[in-house]
Design goal:
- This is Cupin domain-containing protein.
- This protein has one domain (46-208, 217-361): Jelly Rolls (Sandwich).
- The protein contains 7 helices and 23 strands.
- The strands form 5 sheets. The chain has a 6-stranded antiparallel sheet with strand order 1-19-16-21-14-13. A 6-stranded antiparallel sheet has the order 2-3-10-5-8-12. It has a 5-stranded antiparallel sheet with strand order 7-6-9-4-11, with no helix packed on it.
- It is globular, with a radius of gyration of 23 Å.
- The protein has 364 residues and is of the alpha+beta class.
- Strand 6 (122-128) and strand 7 (131-136) form a beta hairpin.
- Bound molecules: 2,5-dihydroxybenzoic acid and fe (ii) ion (FE2).
């Protein structure tokens, strides 16, 4: 801003100092930072390789016991643009959790909500509000906000799963409460897999059940049904941007599984290269099957089974599967938050036939 005729540079300096001393700030020197023409994120696109995740998780198992206080054996994925802030994107916490045969993680509850996406192992469990949810590869298990949860592995094999939490968002909103359960484990007061018995077939629900909260009443989305749904849709249609993509739904509402997080499963068919687009939400992906690449803002991230990667908000991205085998991606997204606040936008990449030019490749 230009100075008014009467003002001197000295008078202006004194004025700014006085403002600061009185805890005031002028908008006119901050407009460009506060109101960028479009989102300017510090979140960087990044990829974590399965070979690292798996070997470091195993080392954590050799070194670190699971005790009350530490609560969980979890390795969080830290975005290199947000170092020191314990977050994978600005809103999402993604991690791997490792549980060895015979181990248990203590019961607790917190206002941040969580999902588990099972990567490896069959038959361990998460107990959620008195219900034992038995977990296997490809299952999606929810622990909605403020639900008691503890984990246990009574099998002969180590279990590893992806955790997804809205922890960074809830922390930024100063909405975090945490409470340890008075005992190490919670009592199982409901039949095993109770929510699956009531809601597991999706197209029908018990007539007497009322919707109690904003989270899905189905706590375990079993892989065999997810896989069947994907296969059926593949015979029908696909999105030009996401290929054969499906959202896990709350059977009461048809909406996202949690008020803060949506979960997707998508099949990128052999030979497919999707068109690029960008959205105001961020997403963290886990490569469940196959290999391929995602181009994010012109950088190619080659991925294979087990890798995890983050797509920052308002970043151009497209997926490619150049192999002759199916690729399956699971993801968590903060879309419900953006949608609820009227902040959700998406835009298709129009230039160059809808495909970005690849200017670099991720080495990591
Ligand atoms: O399993 O309860 O990755 O409370 C972070 C916080 C997992 C859990 C995480 C948690 C948990
Ligand atoms: Fe937890």
């Amino acid at each position: 801003m230009a100075l008014k005729e009467a003002a001197t540079v000295d008078a202006l300096q004194v004025f700014y100092t006085d403002l600061e001393r009185k805890h005031l700030a002028p908008l006119w020197t901050a407009t460009a930072d506060l109101l960028p023409r479009e989102p300017k994120t510090k979140v960087l696109p990044f990829l974590w390789r399965w070979s690292d995740l798996w070997s470091l998780a195993q080392r954590s198992g050799e070194l670190i016991p699971i005790e009350r206080g530490g609560e969980r054996r979890v390795l969080a994925l830290i975005n290199p643009g947000l170092t020191g802030r314990y977050r994978t994107s600005h809103t999402l916490w993604a991690a791997v959790q490792y549980l060895q045969p015979g181990e248990r993680a203590p019961a607790h509850r917190h206002t941040p909500a969580a999902i588990r996406w099972i990567i490896q192992g069959e038959g361990s469990y998460t107990a959620v509000d008195g219900e034992k949810c038995v977990m296997g590869r490809g299952d999606l298990v929810l622990t909605p906000a403020w639900s008691w949860h503890d984990h246990g592995n009574d099998t002969q094999e180590p279990m590893i799963w992806m955790d997804g939490l809205d922890l960074p968002l809830v922390n930024d909103l100063d909405g975090t409460f945490f409470e340890p359960y008075p005992d190490f484990s919670q009592p199982l007061t409901k039949p095993e897999n109770d929510s699956e018995r009531r809601y597991g077939l999706g197209q029908l629900k018990p007539t007497w059940e009322k919707q109690l909260g904003p989270a899905s009443p189905l706590l375990n989305y079993k892989w065999n049904q997810t896989s069947e749904a994907l296969g059926r849709l593949a015979g029908s249609g696909a999105s030009p941007f996401d290929d054969v993509a499906m959202e896990f739904i709350n059977p009461h509402t048809g909406g996202p599984v949690l008020p803060t997080m949506a979960c997707w499963i998508q099949l990128i068919r052999p030979g497919i290269r999707t068109r690029a687009h960008r959205q105001t939400n961020s997403a963290v992906y886990q490569v469940f099957e196959g290999s391929g690449a995602t181009i994010i803002n012109g950088k190619r991230f080659d991925w294979k089974k087990g890798d995890m990667f983050v797509v920052p908000p308002w970043s151009w991205h497209e997926h490619a599967n150049p192999t002759d085998a199916e690729a399956i991606l699971f993801s968590i997204q903060d879309t419900p938050v953006m949608a609820a606040l009227g902040l959700y936008r998406e835009q298709a990449y129009e230039e160059n036939g809808g495909h970005q030019e690849v200017v670099s490749t991720f080495q990591g």
